[in-house]
Amino acid sequence: MSDVNTPSAVPPLVLLKVPEELSSERLVLLSARAGFGQAVNAAVVESFEQLRPWMPWCQALPAVEDSEAVMRQMQARFLLREDLCYYFFRRGEDGRPGRLLGGCGLHRMDWALRRFEIGYWVRSSAQGQGYVSEMVQRLSRLAFEQLRARRLEIRCDARNTRSRAVAERNGFTLEAVLRHAMLGVDGEPVDQCIYARWP
Known about the structure:
By secondary structure, the chain is an alpha+beta fold. Helices cover 28% and strands 33% of the residues.
């Protein structure tokens, strides 16, 4: 019988080094944390009608307190390496984060296989400016270079043409369209696209 104090051959996930800040040419990505609730709430409220058809978590306008509670839950999940949620900001001339543009992250991880899924949303006033593609490229580098990913996916409702275009622009291959593989926001089954990249 092993002793709880005996070092494991595989270190616990909580000890895995995952950066809490990433940067690219125009963006700063920061892991979810306490205090982000007000900025995230403003972005969600601004973009509610555009997000509601695709995001199950965006079916009712949240209060600032609701958004702050979610931030704290996401921060805890990040520290436990259960869900790596980030928010991306316009990078200022001084390199510091400016206006919050949207949310993103590596989700539904399989740490044994090293498979990750990229998810994202962007506020309405920041759409069509290439920010999402830049963010996807930065998260892809994190996955492949630092987390040694063997497989990286983007999954989306087959009707979500904007999300599909992001995957295709960033070198993800459409592997399959699965019939009735996910529930839409109305609770009805819809088709799901699976895009993937490899090292």
